[in-house]
Amino acid sequence: MSCRIAVFGTGYLGATHAACMAELGHEVLGVDVDASKLAKLESGEVPFYEPGLEEVLKQNIEDGRLRFTASYEEAAAFADVHFIGVGTPQKRGEYAADLTYVDAVVETLAPLLDRASVIFGKSTVPVGTAERLGHRARQLAPAGVEIDVAWNPEFLREGYAVRDTLHPDRLVLGVDRDRPGRAEEVARKVYARLLSVNTPFLVTDLATAELVKAAANAFLATKISFINAMAEVCETAGADVSVLADAIGYDARIGRRFLNAGIGFGGGCLPKDIRAFMARAGEIGADEALTFLREVDNINMRRRTRMVELAREAVGGSLLGTSVAVLGAAFKPDSDDVRDSPALSIAGQIQLQGASVNVYDPKAMDNSRAVFPTLNYATSAIEACVNADLVLVLTEWKEFVALDPQALRTAVRRPSIIDGRNCLEAQTWRDAGWTFRALGRV
Ligand code: NAD
To answer: N or C: which end of the chain has fewer CB within 10 A?
Structure first.
């Protein structure tokens, strides 16, 4: 049975969720405060790069199940299931999450709710937020106690967002144990198609659901920083972290995924989420439990510095006056997201040391220009490499993995490359006459 759903915030998470809920057969209204984003979405254009999303968006707009608006009044009149998908960035100058946008949704929406409704939070929030928002929503809403607030954390990965939303590995729903209300029943309706194929569905209390998301991100960040710490040791011991990762990864208890040493994690989630987790743990008196995350963050940031050092060494000790090609700007492949991107941060630092930096990324050029307007931007990988003294591969796009070392050699001034993602075949490049270096390998 179809539900009438409003999704607040139509960014990476919200636009995907709105389109995919329509794909599941529901009637969906996407709500945002950004008029230009809404205009694009209304015309069937995804305002960011996400493989497969445009098709789902267009099809569901065409079928009349998906619309967009800036009007909260329209959303409150239309839907009785509301998802919050707005951003929760890091506060300026602090580790804690900025909840301004999440709070704004509740402050604006709740006074318009005059009938029984369920608000599902999907944004990543500090533990305790859902309970607070539940009280606030019931205080503000004309329907009062008929308003339920539940938390339904999102685990989608950019680059696989459609697949992850339509075929999630699990669904988690935190409900208020003191007043369970209709949240679980409504979630079962919304996700009926996913539940019919036995997607694991964990119903928890609010705090556990909020912590599941924080814990998942903390674990992933730790796994990446673990292998990057091993890379540091390998660099000084003259060992090879890629082989080490393969060897330990065969142990099923460890697993090979997320053990790729390189310039570390970035993006709009992991860095700010582990910091917000530490900040919240401090507030609730559990800070000791998460002090290790500070080291996880430190290891991660050190990799960026190490990459800049390696680049400096590779050009003979000073970057001043050199030309450096940077291949990749997005924080990971198959995304145009440059929020806290290690690649762009390294490109910026290298430029500050006096190099002329030419960046190319298959999808993230516009976003990169907006953040770092002073870097040079090329229209292809080859163009970025013309007359380069050094080539850096900083995002593991397939296009860069497939680069032909022979062809690229004719473009550069000096055939010297550093693989910041351990994604290239070292021997192939060396055989083609390149000086090849990588993080964590000799
Ligand atoms: P985003 O910045 O891409 O999107 C946020 C959107 O909210 C923007 O379009 C913004 O205009 C809109 N917005 C701001 N205030 C609003 C308001 N008052 N009413 C309506 N819309 C408003 O962010 P995102 O990457 O989609 O992340 C959103 C949340 O989801 C964050 O908490 C994030 O941690 C979480 N999350 C993101 C991902 C991901 O892969 N991007 C995955 C899991 C969880």
So the answer is: N
Residue nearest to atom 8 of ligand 1 (CA): 11
CB distance 86 to ligand 1 below 6 Å:
yes
Task: Output the pTM of the full model.
Answer: 0.96
> Which tokens is 166 given?
């339509």
Q: Give the nearest ligand 1 atom to 10 CA.
A: 9
Answer whether 123 contacts ligand 1 (Cβ < 6 A).
yes
Helix, strand, or coil here: 12?
A: helix
160 lines ligand 1 (CB under 6 A): no
Q: What is the pLDDT of residues 359-375, one digit of tens each?
A: 999 999 999 999 999 99
Ligand 1, residues 269, 280, 336, 341: which to mutate, most atoms within 8 A of Cβ? Answer: 269
Predicted pLDDT of residue 234: 97
Whole-angstrom distance, CA of residue 399 vs CA of residue 384:
14
Counting Cβ atoms within 10 Å, is residue 14 exposed (0-12), middle (13-18) or buried (19+)?
buried
What distance in Å separates the CA atoms of residue 166 and residue 430, rounded to the nearest whole number? 43
Going from the Cα of 88 to the center of ligand 1, the distance in angstroms, rounded, reads: 7
Please pick, among 3, 20, 269, 385, the residue that the annotation labels catalytic: 269
Residues 56 and 8 in one domain: yes
Contact 183, 119 (CB under 8 A): no
Containing domain of residue 81, as a range? 4-199
Same-domain status, 191 and 236: no
What amino acid is encoded at 253 in this protein? R
If we measure between CA atoms, which residue out of 317, 237, 219, 309 comes closest to residue 273? Answer: 219
The domain total for the chain is 3
Full DSSP string of 410-437 = HH-SS-EEEETTS-S-HHHHHHTT-EEE
> Ligand 1 centroid vs 142 CA: distance in angstroms?
27
Could you tell me the two tokens for 239?
A: 């060992």
Q: Could you tell me if the CB of 19 is within 6 A of ligand 1? A: no
Q: Which of 32, 127, 265, 336 to mutate to test the pocket of ligand 1 (most atoms within 8 A of CB)?
A: 32
In this structure, are 264 and 396 located in the same domain?
Answer: no
Asked if residues 150 and 176 have their Cβ atoms less than 8 Å apart, the reply is yes
Give the model confidence (pLDDT) of 326-361 as tens digits. Answer: 999 999 999 999 999 999 999 999 999 999 999 999
269 noted as active-site residue: yes
- Looking at residue 144, the DSSP 8-state letter turns out to be G
Ligand 1 in contact with 436 (CB < 6 A)? no
pLDDT tens digit string along 67-79?
999 999 999 999 9
Same-domain status, 191 and 327 = no
DSSP type of residue 91: P
